[in-house]
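Here is one record:
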Amino acid sequence: MSKARRIPTLSDPREAEAHFTSAIDQSRLATPTVLVVCCDDQARPIHQWHVLGVDPDATPSECGCVLDDLVDRAEHEAPVAGLALGLTRPGSEQVQPYDRTWFRALYRICHQRGLSPFGVYTVTRAGARPLHIDDAA
């Protein structure tokens, strides 16, 4: 008998890091992509989309439109209570303008929609790490 798969709780940074590290294909780590995860009221993923071919110079408003559209799609199936993002991109592990843009977009959309922000994570060959408000300044 197979063991039941444990659903991660993305409010726990360790579980979120593990989720993003396992959910994002290693071949995508050096290209701009965003894994958008819609969560239920217990911070468990209910829908996720890996957005490929992301414009590295998009504005927070453009990124917010992407997030808004995906939340609308998810809410046709189940109520969305929060969002989390996993970002991949070329460059070093240091915080980049691309990371800051998506961070701002996530927090703006969560505020506008009354959702819980469950974090933004950069995902590199070294693993996933959370971005903090100080990183986004």
The chain has a mean pLDDT of 92.
